[in-house]
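To whoever picks this up:

The parser on our side crashed when reading a file containing two proteins. I've narrowed it down to the boundary between the first structure block and the second sequence. Both blocks are reproduced below exactly, byte for byte. First block:
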Amino acid sequence: MLHGAASGDSFMKKVSILMYHQVGRFPPPAAHRASFCHIRRFKAQMAYLHRFRYKVIGLEKALRGLFGEEPMPEHSVVLTFDDGCENFRDYALPVLKKYRFPATLFLVSSLVGKRAEWLEGRAQAPPKLMDRETLLLLKGEDIVFGSHTRSHSSLTALNLLSMREEIVQSKADLEHLLGEEVKYFCYPNGEFDEQVVATVRDAGYEAALTCERASATPFDDRFALPRKAISYGDSLLGYFWKLHMKHRRKTRR
């Protein structure tokens, strides 16, 4: 599906939506490396964006640039963080505040203040998720919140009723908890199909993000926008390569 008018400069418009999960101090993970970013590398990455004058913009501004009439600044970057782990507050947030970078956090509504139960059984204990008080404090820090379902379930494996509840109820839960509209959605594990996308659209979200690797362009479906995963081992050279060379979509489905 093509969403957004193909204006004369549409083919030039693109934005790197970066996908982070946990930020902190971790031993080298044996698996799921895209779920971890060591704080040392995160600091270097944010300093790199600042030093070389990348345009770190919010998701809303990126959508207006891709699908609206606004120009898209060259070398635009959007920062997104999945799951809402507590280490975001302790490690990522101070760095973002230093550079005044906006970010979007995707929360699992029924597990706010609990642990990331879907990570049970991996080498490390499931990380703690931010509680309501912490999330409310973040509202004044140029942070936008989105939904990551109610329980981080794989939506394509659920029946229609359960799938719809994960998508629709999570929006209602978070809006009640935060006292503000929740406009954006993120597919757990990057798993979605046409029925899931249609449900997200019908639920009243304005856009949704995947785990498919590419720059986002006006030719993407706004309910299946690609992102670029930042992995534990990414050096600054690898970071540069993802920002400037990794534009073609690589599907995980």
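<<boundary where parser fails>>
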Amino acid sequence: MKQAKAFSIIEVLIVLAIIFIIVGISAYSTQNWRKQVNLINTRDSLKSTLTKAQQLAASSSQTLSWGVHLESDRYVFFKGDTYDPDEVSNIITYLKGTQIINPATSLSDGVSGYSPEVIFAKLSGETVNIGTITITVLNDIDSKKEIIITKTGAVN
């Protein structure tokens, strides 16, 4: 008579423990990957908006200056020489899972102060609002991406 072989409870528990460890590591890695992708997408979207404002100003579209207003949880694409929060043509982009660090002090205002706006001059596309915009993942300031704005209006 052959004796049936079976798994012991210890063997089953060891296999389950290994599976839970692998799943835990995978979930943690996937979560970090998603945060990094979101951070890169946010940086690229803001960089694209800044470049669009610079190009519209340089081409003197609608004979206006164009700019971007920064807040920690959003940025606003606007037209004109100054930011008006009540202007209906403003395009607001809300940040999800990311934030802009110190938007009020990230950029110079051209007269020894700071400004949360980047305004590109019509025809030249230049700006006096130079500096570095830092974007981070919420609750994780070690994960960050930067956008540098130069006097010529270049967005890097």
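After patching the parser it read the second block fine. The longest strand covers residues 140-149. The mean pLDDT is 92.
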